[in-house]
Amino acid sequence: MSVNSNQVITKLISLGVMANINQEIDHDTASIIAEEFGFIVVKHEDEVASEETNEQEMLDFEDKEEDLIERSPVVTVMGHVDHGKTSLLDAIRETKVTEREAGGITQHVGASTVKVNDKRIVFLDTPGHEAFTAMRARGAQVTDVAILVVAADDGVMPQTIEAINHAKAANVPIIVAINKIDKPEANPDRIKQEITEHGLVPEDWGGDTICVPVSALKKQGIDELLEMILLVAEMEELKANPNRRAKGTIIEAELDKGKGPVATVIVQKGTLKVGDAVVTGTAHGKVRAMIDDKGKRIKEAGPSTPVAILGLSEVPDAGEHLYVVESDKKAREIAENRKEKIRMEQLKTTQKVSLDDLFEQIQKGEVKDLNVVIKADVRGSIEAVKQALEKLSIDEVKVKTIHGGVGAINETDIMLASASNAIVIGFNVRPTSTAINLAKQENVDVRTYRVIYEAIEDIEAAVKGMLEPEY
Ligand code: GDP
């Protein structure tokens, strides 16, 4: 305000606030004083943020323990290309999915429900850790169990390692499906050895990773695999309250010429009903119709049910949360507010973690782990850097390598970093051009080095608050 501090203090004292120059005053007092000097006070972002937190709490309230009942697991299949992810999903569907309803509606739902004994398992149709992590970067996690497919004739490959690290970063339990055991050259023991090197120790070797030998082609081992999924789900104690306003996550959405926006949502809490007022991202509307994965029109969908819904005002993004609210008016209001906020945010981009302001974030208590994704030209460098970096951990902050891989910095590295609030470090490798663009869009800090000690010096300086800013 370009007002002398003495004038401010005098004004405060005249209002009965005995303040000194180092003291903080609250927002209301500050506005009154500012107005006295002819200024209007606008609320700081942090306070706006706390109002948003309230909105979030209103939408996403916690349930009481006694209201929770068991719910079905939602499963994603991951693994290296050509190891049999699609074939495995097909084999499961062919052996287990009951026929489509006669006269059912042809509607792609993006997930399939399988019945095993009297339980259900939901499989997401899009395999791979890319889709999984892209959702997580949007703040959504729908997967309860990850199936890691490893071909017994090929072994652990780069994308197998990526999948392991992406699932671990998300804290999702992994079941290993050792596939293609029908092949004469299949060697399941070698697979077990190789996954052990990546921290997945098989049960029969004293660890806690369940491995199931399967053949997607010959449809062998499918029942055992499904039983193991149910076992892991049971250990995870997956529960939800079906008797509340629904909350779910969009897994797919598209604009249909005849039907308008169609979105597939996996209901996670509560029961979604036809007629409910919903908001998801900047889309809102009333659920006009719901179609399940068998093409049947349904009126209600409980926890862990995938359904396509009609009636939204626009096509939402995959990974958006969907909430039922009390009225159409409220849904529209929230969606409009979000649009306004996005408009404001486009004016200023917010960095996630960056080395430049790491120390400040540590001091504010915003960062406790410094997550790092390392890419290098040779495997030896990854281990060397990993160990050197982890030694830099101090009391306030732990340096943690969440993924290391050989090759250029690619889009999935950026998405993993974005989802895990990590920085990406490259040694003698560069980001691909799509990765560079994505990093800008996601505000991920990517740094490349030629020698290891330079990276270590930079991180050490950042952790201790002594990094020279990069201009
Ligand atoms: P994805 O890229 O991981 O989805 O792999 P696909 O499901 O497309 O499978 C890649 C190839 O492996 C295809 O030619 C499949 O027929 C073959 N394949 C998949 N599962 C098996 C299996 O259990 N045994 C054999 N012999 N081949 C398989």
UniProtKB/TrEMBL annotation:
The keyword Cell membrane does not apply. GTP binds at residues 79-86, 125-129, 179-182. GO terms for molecular function: GTP binding; GTPase activity; translation initiation factor activity. It is found in: Cytoplasm. Keywords: Cytoplasm, GTP-binding, Initiation factor, Nucleotide-binding, Protein biosynthesis. Its main location: cytoplasm. GO terms for cellular component: cytosol. Residues 73-221 are annotated as: G-domain. The keyword Cell wall biogenesis/degradation does not apply. Residues 70-239 form the Tr-type G domain. One of the essential components for the initiation of protein synthesis. Protects formylmethionyl-tRNA from spontaneous hydrolysis and promotes its binding to the 30S ribosomal subunits. Also involved in the hydrolysis of GTP during the formation of the 70S ribosomal complex. Belongs to the TRAFAC class translation factor GTPase superfamily. Classic translation factor GTPase family. IF-2 subfamily. This is Translation initiation factor IF-2. It comes from Caldisalinibacter kiritimatiensis. The chain holds residues 120 to 590 of 687 of the full protein.
